[in-house]
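Hi R.,

Here's the chain you asked about this morning:
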Amino acid sequence: MQILDGQFVSRLIKERLKMDAAALVSEGKKIPHLAAVLVGNNGASETYVTAKVKACAEIGFKSTMLRLDDSVSESKLLSIIEDLNGDMDVDGILVQLPLPKHISDERIILAIDPSKDVDGFHPVNVGKMVLGSPSFISATPHGIMLLIEHYKIKTAGKKAAVIGRSNIVGRPMSILLSTNTTPGNCTVTLCHSHTHNLKDICAESDIIIAALGKPEFLRADMVKEGAVIIDVGITRVPDATKKSGFALKGDVAFAEVSPKCSFITPVPGGVGPMTIAALMKNTFTALKRKY
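And here is the predicted structure, written out as tokens:
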């Protein structure tokens, strides 16, 4: 069993991007600029956005963090996005989800200029991804593919099960794994709450992507020997033995599943860092496409 070390691989990616940014500076050219919009005081969202801004600083990118009260109107947020769309110095825009209930996620995503949609959520980018055209790929699936590529995991002809059908992870992940590329060329089953015989489907799969948000859902009896396991989930679970009062658990019961695997991601330290690395790559790409 080998750990898929997202911390290590993301660091390699960020180091390369840091060199690319330094080269732009030495040539007197513009460096990538990411604008992040955070609405409200959601603790998890605060952590995610702060990590993204920190990554920009480490690499040498410019970043702007816009904090808005959770009472901000949808029209005001749309106006801010319109300004960012028109700002030639801003290359990438992300609006951290989830948004307050009075604001439509869909309207906000649609308002972002697809050429600056480094989160890869806009229908234009999703459509291009489906067609195999150059696009911004949603950061988590993109990061997973980069991780698979780094470890040279064989995917062609393999059976893959994706558990979870969200537009952010599950659906794009199923498309990327089935695309005629390397990595890719898997035969993919997209599983969800209405899937019959889920246990049997997983037990027959060479690769399993667990992205449903249920702690330790995937157990050892659902995994065959030598499978590749990618754990996207991360949930706070009460734990009195921890100083924080909670432990972070993935969607995979790591202790019992890992001995059966050829490769597996840890939680934390697996997919999370790769998501940020992929976002940074998208931001650099947004600048390159502009010029």
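One quick note: The chain has two domains: 27-114, 139-272.

Cheers,
M.
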